[in-house]
Task: inverse folding
């Protein structure tokens, strides 16, 4: 596969300072300062300052591995320990096993229908795998395309677990339109794309026409019912429990904040100009939350690693 794959071993991240060359070494950050935590409306608000440690990159992991991101796109964790990665350029979903090997490539369409075009996300729920392209989802069963799921979805389906799918507004597709104060932030759907319930409330930006973009982001479900959402335009991650209650809001500082989003006249129309500071979110086999985040100006992207309490533990 082209590009850089970031992988995580299930055992190595639990170690620190071991002598083997193929194990990552977590180096303490001298300037570490404990996060500031307050309770707001029953949820914890966590202001992180710096991570507790940094991980030195290594290239020869041994044993089981989990693909987290490839070419800047999150891979969806699978129940068998592997991952599914949507390759938009190739119009396919690549399935990796629990050892990081390519196990299957999902492509095509059922009964001669138009094939999957540019999959933006992959999601697994109820033992079935979806490739998501815009508002439509192509269901794969036993490795083969089975049927299109074409219903009116409120947002892009991005994750699945326990037979439930999660949808959110996305920087891939949004409208220049306001949001209302009572509008939900996330949607939980059943296997047919019908809304089961909603989660959270949107934030209202200064420019009402950027309401959809302001609330766009990335969502992932865990096997226990937790829902994690990372805003695309600012460094904030939220966790909701299985009952839909907000448990914590975690923030981390930007080294160089980008200019605020704005509208400009281009190509004969009005176009938004914005910079995404969070590019995706996924879960590692160690239970931690991994966010692919924008680095400082001109620097490479980095992984922001949060624990289950929303604390920034590693970069």
Result:
């Amino acid at each position: 596969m082209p590009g850089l794959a970031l992988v995580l071993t299930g055992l190595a991240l639990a170690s620190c300072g071991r002598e083997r060359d193929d194990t990552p070494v977590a180096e303490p950050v001298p300037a570490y300062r404990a996060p500031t935590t307050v309770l707001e409306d029953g949820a914890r608000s966590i202001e992180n300052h710096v991570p507790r440690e940094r991980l030195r990159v290594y290239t020869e992991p041994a044993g089981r591995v989990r693909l987290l991101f490839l070419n800047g796109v999150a891979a969806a964790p699978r129940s068998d320990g592997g991952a599914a990665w949507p390759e938009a350029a190739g119009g396919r979903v690549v399935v990796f096993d629990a050892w990081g090997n390519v196990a299957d490539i999902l492509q095509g369409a059922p009964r001669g229908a138009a094939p999957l075009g540019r999959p933006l996300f992959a999601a697994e729920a109820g033992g079935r795998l979806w490739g998501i392209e815009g508002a439509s989802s192509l269901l794969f069963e036993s490795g083969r395309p089975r049927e299109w799921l074409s219903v009116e979805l409120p947002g892009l389906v991005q994750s699945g677990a326990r037979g439930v799918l999660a949808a959110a507004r996305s920087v891939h597709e949004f409208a220049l339109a306001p949001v209302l104060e009572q509008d939900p932030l996330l949607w939980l759907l059943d296997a047919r794309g019908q809304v089961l319930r909603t989660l959270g409330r949107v934030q209202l930006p200064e420019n009402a026409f950027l309401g959809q973009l302001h609330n766009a982001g990335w969502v992932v479900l865990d096997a226990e019912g937790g829902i994690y959402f990372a805003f695309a335009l600012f460094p904030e991650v939220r966790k909701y429990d299985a009952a839909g209650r907000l448990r914590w809001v975690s923030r981390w500082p930007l080294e160089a904040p980008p200019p605020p989003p704005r509208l400009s006249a281009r190509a004969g129309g009005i176009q938004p100009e914005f910079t995404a500071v969070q590019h995706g979110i996924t879960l590692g086999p160690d239970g931690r939350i991994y966010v692919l985040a924008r680095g400082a100006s001109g620097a490479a992207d980095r992984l922001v690693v949060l624990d289950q309490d929303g604390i920034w533990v590693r970069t």
